[in-house]
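Tokens help. One example:
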Amino acid sequence: MSIDRERVSRPREADFAWSRDDLRAVTAFTSATAEVVLPYFELRCPADTRPRHALDAALAVARGEPRSRAQRVSAPAAHRAGREASSDVAFHAAMAAGDAAASAYLHPLADLAQVKHILRAPAHAIRVIELADSSDECSGLGFFAEHFASYATVQLCDVLRRYPRISAMSGDSNAMSSRSAERPDDSNERPGRTRANTNHINRLMHELDVRLRVQPTAPSSQPTAMSGQP
């Protein structure tokens, strides 16, 4: 069987217009949401700086610096920190930081893997607050999703609308995140490894997707702080 090497090596063409400012809007959103919950990890794992390094790498892109090896290396390192953590709260907080760094490698390709680069970090951030602040009188999926959606700018919402919608049960095939989180050999030993948990993250991404696509065209106001404490 002959192989068309030129076709195999040819990079996929962009599906829509794309700019560095679009990438900045995405990483600003994902890093802002991850930054809210990173203290929950650092309180429980004070000696582990991997998620902090991932967040710093994401913030660098949000400031306008070019994406680099820093994001590519720090994202999976933060995910490993989450998988090694002893609590669900720390797990999701580290995953949010790692996914913020991974969002720097978003590409203008109309597929669900790219949509999750935008929505996975805030979904994990919501899960942190759900777990840590479940007694809050205002708690609830809708309330938390609305809060974290308020971190989005008009440009972020415009970028998201270029991608396909995500369903509540979309499978998560991202190699840096959930695929590692569902390894059968340690699924019963560490937090955040169950299919139900993955489905919940998918549901959170769906809730965010729905809200962000109908955000008003006026600039968003500064979100209010969550009432919970790490």
Observations:
- Confidence is low (pLDDT under 50) at residues 172-189, 217-222.
- The radius of gyration is 17 Å.
- Residues 175 and 229 are 31 Å apart (CA to CA).
- The chain has one domain: 16-213.
